[in-house]
Each structure stands twice: as C-alpha cells, then as structure tokens.
Amino acid sequence: MKTMSLISRTAAFAAAALSMAVQAAPVEKPEKATTCAACHGETGVSATGMYPTLAGQYANYLEHSLKDYRAGARKNAIMGAQAANLSDDEIKQLARWFSQQQGPLHTPSVHGELQP
Asked: What per-residue confidence (pLDDT) applies to 19?
C-alpha cells in the first residue's frame, strides 16, 4: 500500500515538473497576437485602464477566459467576436505567449520558484 502511494506521489511530482518545464519554454509570438495589440498593447501591456493587461497573467487564466468568451459564458461584445474564430491551439499559444511577457503586474508562481 505504501509503495503504491509513493509511486503515485512520484508520478504526480514528475508530471508537475514536466508541465512547469513545458510552460517555461519560450514561445514565439503568435500571428494572432497582432490583433490583440490594438487594445492590449504589443506585448500585452495595455496603454489605458480600459483594457486589461495580459502580460504576466497565468496562462491557464488567459486560456480559460478566451474559451469562455468564445463560448459566450463570459460576456463582452468585442472579446466574444475576437475569440469566436480562435481554435483551442491558437488560444493556448496566445495564452502561453502573453503569460511569458513582462508586465507591471506581479503574479507569484503557485509552483514556487523554477530553478535554472
């Protein structure tokens, strides 16, 4: 019984470490990010308070938000129209790229500090 628990915990730790490594790998700027720049800035730092800053946000938060806009679960006429034609892969790419940009926000990692 203890062996199975140890194996389960080891597997969970390995999966989490792999997930963090994949998320930390630099991502090229997606082509679709050009459309986002009109309101959210070239790197996701909004020039006005009217549009939220995307740079440095959690990738899973951005991905979830875009999928909710696309599905109509989150209401905003502009974002609903922008997200309507995004594929899951495009959403994931945008979310990862914006999450890796430097912004004025401090978003501490829930995973602790990554070691080089």
From this structure: 46
